[in-house]
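Here's a chain:
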Amino acid sequence: MIKRLVIFVGLATLLSLQCLFAQRPIPMQQNTGGFGQTTRPAREVVEQEDQEDTDGRRPLLDDSTRQVYGPKTTLYFFEKDLKRNRLQLYEQDTLLRNFHNYDPVAKQGWKYQDLGNIGSAAKPVFYEIPEVIGLNSGFHAYDLYFRDPAKRKFYDTKSPFTEMAAFFGGGHRNMLDISFARNVNSRWNIGIDYNTLRVRKALNPIRRDDNMVEQNAYSLHTNYRSENGKYWLLGSFSRMRHEVFEIGGIIPPEVDTTSLYFTYEDAKVWLQNSRARDLRQDYHLYHEYKLGNGLQIYHTLDRKNQNIVFETDLTSSDSLFFNPDRLNDQQDTTQNRSDFAEWRNELGVKGSYKGFYYNAFTRFRNGRMISPFFPDTREAFNEVYIGGELIGQLSEKWSISADGEYLIPDAFRIHGLFKSPWLELEYTKALYKPTSMQQIYFGNHYQWNNDFDNIGVDQIKGRVILDFEKVSLRPNLTINRVNNYVFFNEERIATQASGEAFMLMPGLIATVQIGKKFKLDAEVVYTEVTGGGADNFRIPRLFGNTRFYFDSPMFDENVYVQLGIDLRYRSSYFAEAYNPSFQQFHLQDGFNVFAYPVADVFLDFRINRTRVLFKYNHLNSGFMQQDGYFVTPDYTGYRSFLDLGISWYLFD
């Protein structure tokens, strides 16, 4: 009854808003990124010392001597822009576009496969080239929920700035984000962020606070500029403790005839006494100094630590989920522990000459992986890189760039990018190392010690930019060739492919203005994988997102409203299964994650600087042939429930 009422109210509102409110239309935003992403306005850096008060802050007053601090006076920038000598200051985001997709997987356009809950293990749906071509830990299941300090926002605030966001999801799926920043003086800013997740189990919770995910994370950041502008320093620290109480998925009905899918809270699951923890700490420092004549030197320092733990009680029924092997002589409990740490130092020169930016660097990485069950306890590594970058800004809309790095003696990456007003082309060729976890692992249920070759990839991307009066189209094509790919096979063992895989991925991103107040956003990707290693990649052949919504100011432009429906779809495929004991996805051939369209209805609105969302998930539940859908073998997707969220800014 509630679902029918929601459908009726939503459709009636969509039809009536056009007639009831004859407000002027909002100009259509050009979508230059992926589905649901909009480029924010940016400003050039402006020197303001002559306009500052004695405390280093600019006295922004209107004609009535009332302070007018707001989104346009509290600006932020990114390290990558400063490093490339094209610093831009961005205003605070008050747009409603995609605001209702607040959880991390939805915010990424549903291009991650998770376990059907916020904070659960997740992997990209499509193949991605790793950012680090050298050795990394290999424990990436919770990367999506970690805020990398090297990619964070750095602020320039004219007043104390606070951003708060709280999201209360159906089924007790709660998120809280708080950020604070302020200028100590006109050239020095400091700030702190705090983020927390409290997400109850979607399957078989035994009490109200029986959480699947508990996360506490915080970060500190600062940026400083010398009085003459020659020296810049950016520093940040991030810490995340991400704890997951694993469920192992629903017990298949063929194993237990009393177990049923799509019973959610009443589902029978494998695990009740198993826990995974990912603790990360990351120190990051970037600073540069201008020597003169456009020449600069810079230094980047990173100190990263990742501590991975999985524990389970083998005297309970949880033992039935795992294979019978006890390889570390732990009969009563499994305690798989891994600790990965690294130091990274990059020293380089950079500058600009006749419209071209250049950069040359040397990077040193050293670190270790520790496990109490390794033969030598400690596996250490040392890596030396050389590389550089060249960017030519031919005009405001035309540019060409090339960058590369060489990991001595046997890994590399080269990358080129061409941009024009109507065409973008990108090419990447890389040879990168398998992860530390793929090379050596000594858990209580699985162990291996490998000597895999490096993985090779060639990737070509192209995108055509077509903008008309009310239609924006982005036809695109991605071609991948991957050889020596390392994956986890059906037996959950790290394996290296013997054949190549070729991926042909045409796609289309479109934005259409319908009338004055309605919009349609869509993205579709078709994937064809061939070659001897094709079966090692499990990607849905057809992937699509569509959003149709009303978008207009109302009530004399005091309220901005978006009301519509989201529809997402993946075709049937044998999605990878998840093994919590070593926190990896692996191949399987027995469970077809069938095709199923999922519809969500949403209402986003903004009053002044406050944004509010209402989202009803899985609107079409009960109207389909199947009772629900799966996101991963034995893990069901969202049931029908209502989400509420609010986000607001304070500027004093």
The chain has a mean pLDDT of 90. The two ends are 46 Å apart (CA to CA). The CA atoms of residues 249 and 635 lie 5 Å apart. The chain has one domain: 69-651.
